[in-house]
């Protein structure tokens, strides 16, 4: 499912002046720029990235991919020793998560190829069966791998912080308040979130 970014920007600018200003500041939406085309690797990336900075997670993921000549597969991961996987920087906990993911994909209990055909909540239900994959990780997969246009991760601390600042709220918004604010962003809440994340970064301004 692809997102019509021109239509999304037009609708969001018309409905929300805060987002309109962010879109003017940051230009085109980069939501699709860094997505992994391979769903297994995308989920491994999501697990590695948990509670790490972008730089640290990129370093570990690069070392992990190098073990498999850039193309890790469930079978290849299963055949690799704990010692070698730990050596690239995986914690004991994340090693367990990656092992569980690999086993579920290999035995067919998590059919990655069919996720594209499921609704958002069905995808979340399927992915959260994996140890270490919670709702937030599943929502990131929906947004960045499946390119679903209308995801609002209310548990994301970056979104909470960005809305708090951009909308000049007195206190950080609750999940319920975020949902209310985000109603006007439908059906492009994923695009709105990208601009909110962008507002927290030292990104270059649009030329």
Descriptive notes:
This protein is mainly α and 207 residues long. It folds into two domains: 5-32 and 151-198, Endonuclease Iii, domain 2; 39-144, Hypothetical protein, domain 2 (Endonuclease III, domain 1, Orthogonal Bundle), CATH 1.10.340. The chain has twelve helices and no strands. The chain has helices at residues 5-15, 17-26, 39-49, 54-66, 74-78, 82-87, 92-106, 120-127, 135-144, 157-166, 175-182, 189-198. Helix 2 (17-26) crosses helix 12 (189-198) and helix 3 crosses helix 4. The longest helix has 15 residues, at 92-106. It is elongated, with a radius of gyration of 18 Å.
Keywords:
207 residues; mainly alpha; Endonuclease Iii, domain 2; Endonuclease III, domain 1; 2 domains; elongated; disordered C terminus
Helix/sheet category:
mainly alpha
Reading off the top of the CATH hierarchy, the class of the largest domain is best stated as: Mainly Alpha
Taking all Cα atoms into account, the compactness measure Rg is 18 Å
Helical content band: 55-70%
Order of helices and strands: HHHHHHHHHHHH
CATH architecture of the largest domain: Orthogonal Bundle
Strand count, sense and closure of the main sheet? Answer: none
Strand content: under 5%
User: How many distinct domains?
Assistant: 2
Number of strands: 0
Overall pLDDT confidence: 91
Distinct helical segment count: 12
Instruction: Assign the CATH superfamily of the largest domain.
Output: Hypothetical protein, domain 2
Instruction: Using the coordinates shown, work out and report the CATH topology of the largest domain.
Output: Endonuclease III, domain 1
